[in-house]
Structure formats: C-alpha cells, structure tokens
Amino acid sequence: MTYPIPAAGTSAAPFCPRHPDRVSYVLCQRCGRPVCPQCQRSAAVGVQCVDCVQVAARTAPVNRTVYGGKVRPGRPLATYVIIALCVLVYLLEWLPGLNVEQSFWYAPVYTQTQPWRMLTSAFLHSQQFLPHILFNMYALWILGHALEPALGRLRFVALYLVSALAGSVGVLLLAPIGGPVLGASGAIFGLFGALFVIQRQRGGDVRQIVVLIIINAALGFIVPGIAWQAHLGGLIVGGLAAALFAHAPKGPRRNLIQFGGLGLLVLVLIVLTVTRMNAIHNLMIQYQL
User: Fold this and answer.
1) Radius of gyration of the chain (CA)
2) What range(s) does the Peptidase S54 rhomboid domain occupy (predicted)?
C-alpha cells in the first residue's frame, strides 16, 4: 500500500500517512514521510516507517546454510514440533474409545486402501513399552539439534517424512506379511543415515555414528517385536536424501536438484510399493487357484 508524501514547502501540520488523525514531526529516514509513534521502527540511524521496514525485509538477502536451507537462529523448531506431535498422539492412544493405534498404524494389508498409514505410523508408539517412545524422542532430539540447523527446517522435515515412508516400504518389501508396525524408528534411522553422510562430507569423524547405527540395528535382531526392515529402509533412503542435499552443486538450480531428487526418491518408493503389491496380489490369485 502507498501513502502520499506531503508536498515540499507546505505549511500544513505533517500527519502520519497511516493515521491521518495524528500529527508527527518525526520523519522516516528512508522515505521522508511523517511517522507517528505507533508506526515508528528503530533503525541504525533514527527511525523508519512500517512500510519501509517491510520493503527492506523483502529485499534483504537471505542467509543460507551450507546446504541451502534458510538460517534460523534459536532452537530447532521443526524437531520440537515433531516431538510434540509424537507425544500428543501417544497421549491420545490412552484415551478409551478413540482407537488411535488401530486407525493409524501400518500393515501391508492397508497399503492399497489406506496408503497414508505408511506415514502416520511414524507418529505412533507402543503403549505396552514406554522406552519405545522415550528412546525415539531422545534420539530425535539429539539428531534434530545436529541436522536441522545444518539443513534448514524444510529440508529436515522432508528428510524425516521421506525416511518414515521408506521405513514402511522396507516393511512391505522385506517383512513377512503379518501384523501391524508403528513407531518413528524408520525415520530416526533415516536421520542416522543422513548424519553419517553429512559428517563424512564435512570431513568429520563418523566412527561414533557407525557404532550407534550398528548397536541400534543389532537390537532389531535381538529384541523381539522390532521391525528391522523399517530401520534398513529408513537408513538407506535417509542417507540418499542427505547425499542429495550435501552434493548438489551450489547455484540457482540447487533447490531444483535437491527437491527434484527427493521427488525421484519418493517416486522410486511408490514404484517399489506398487510392484510389491502386484506381486502379492498375483500370489494370492495363484494360491486361491
């Protein structure tokens, strides 16, 4: 919105363009218009009006991380939001009559009719095993503090969701067709894979990350009821997604390469899902015959 600038040499009292009922002898250092106390914004020298501050904010260069994300000072908000969602859903699981687990967990039988379960299951956790959510949220808190500031919020959330989807695809491809699975472990392993790739690309020490991956992967074979297939799927795709972020060439096409590559990864996961479901369907027909 534009406001008129008082003509030079006029003897009329200067009024704020935004508030014509307010006289102001303070001028904006940028445009020279009168600006009332409500519209004044502190600047390096003097004050500026609201409009000039907004224009400057739109035209100011955006600080970017080394991987192209927008630099946001402060705490990793996306990480905290994902943790809060998981905790909220966990509390809802305990409310009688809602049947949250049964409505949103994933099993291969739901793939064709309710494919969204491949993502929603990553926000559920077992009611019978409290360490399930405690460990996953602690791991997410640690990994989020390392990855979100480096990648930026958008890339971090995309990495989490693609890894969660890959975990469900891993279950569909590798696990026996059976009971439901739930938990953020597939997405967490995707973050582990991403941290390994980024640390290696930076030239950092990756031995501790490798040890953590091995220990947590081994638990999938030692502790009953853990879907190691989801861990493997998330780990592989999370590492591939991080490689796209880390090795995309800098320049005006970097975002296109990064998110276009993520789109291709999702497309591959969809193709694998459809292929597997067709194979299961054909086996069922043969068995019925």
Assistant:
1) 26
2) 113-245
Catalytic residues: 185, 231
Q: Where in the chain is the domain with CATH 1.20.1540.10?
A: 77-288
Give the whole-angstrom CA distance, residue 47 versus residue 33. 11
DSSP H or E segment with residue 41: strand 41-42
Query: CA separation (Å) from 79 to 3, 13, 144, 146, 155?
Result: 42, 53, 5, 10, 12
- pLDDT (tens digit, 9 = 90+) per residue, 18-70? 888 888 888 888 888 888 888 888 877 788 888 888 887 776 666 888 888 88
Rounded to whole angstroms, how far apart are CA atoms 165 and 283? 24
Mean pLDDT of 146-163: 96
Contact (Cβ atoms closer than 8 angstroms) between residue 22 and residue 16: yes
Please give the CATH number for the structural domain made up of 77-288: 1.20.1540.10
User: In sequence order, what DSSP letters do the residues of 114-136 get, joined into one string?
Assistant: -TTHHHHGGG---SS-HHHHHHH
